[in-house]
Amino acid sequence: MADRHSGGVLIVVGTLIIGFILSQMPLPAMLVWWRPEWVAMLVIYWVMALPHRFGIGSAWMAGIVLDVLKGSLLGMNALSLTIVALITLILHKRLRMYRLWQQAMMVLVLVGINQLIFHWIQSMAGTTGDSLIFLLPALVSALLWPWVFVVLRGIRRTFHIR
To answer: Within 13 A of 138's CA, how many CA atoms are on the CB side?
Structure first.
C-alpha cells in the first residue's frame, strides 16, 4: 500500500514538473499571451480528482515553485493557486459530475480568477498594463481542458492512483 501511495505522489509531482516546464518554454513574442496556464489546470485537475491527497497546501507549494521559476514576486502564484484550489475543493463533487464542456467553462472561470488575482497583485506593485489581454490564457486553458482532462485521467487510471 505504501508503494502505491508513493507512486501516486511521484505521478502527481511528475505532471507538475511537466507543467512547470511547459509554463517556462520560450514562445515568440506574439504568442506569449496565448500560453495556457498549465500549472493552474494541473492544480484544478488534481484537486478535483484527488481532493483528499492534493489540496490547498499542495497548490500553495506549487505556486511557490512557480514564483521562483518565473522570478515573480514571491507569493503571487502561491496566493492565486491556493484560492483556485480552495474554490475547486469546495466544488469538486459538482465538477466531477459536469460534462467536459461544462468543466471547461469552470476552468475558464477558475483560471480567470487566477489571472485576475495575479493582475491585481501586479497592479499594486505597479508592473501591469491597462488591457484585458491578461485574461487570454484563461480562454486558451478552457479550450485545452478536455484534452488535458482526458490525458490526466488516463494517467491516473493507468497507474491506479486513488
So the answer is: 20
Q: In whole angstroms, give the CA distance from residue 122 to residue 124.
A: 5
Determine the CATH number of domain 2-158: 1.10.1760
Please state, as a whole number, how many other Cβ atoms lie within 10 Å of the Cβ of residue 30: 7
Residue 34 is given by DSSP the state G
**In a 3-state reduction of DSSP, which class is residue 142?**
helix
pLDDT in tens, the chain (162 residues): 444 566 789 999 999 999 999 999 999 999 999 999 999 999 999 999 999 999 999 999 999 999 999 998 899 999 999 999 999 999 999 999 999 999 999 999 999 999 999 899 888 888 777 788 999 999 999 999 999 999 999 999 999 998
Model confidence, pTM: 0.94
The position carrying cell 499594486 is 124
In the chain, the N- to C-terminal Cα span, in Å, equals: 11
User: Rounded CA gap, 6 and 84, in Å?
Assistant: 25
Locate cell 478536455: which residue? 146
Alpha carbon distance 72, 64 (integer Å): 10
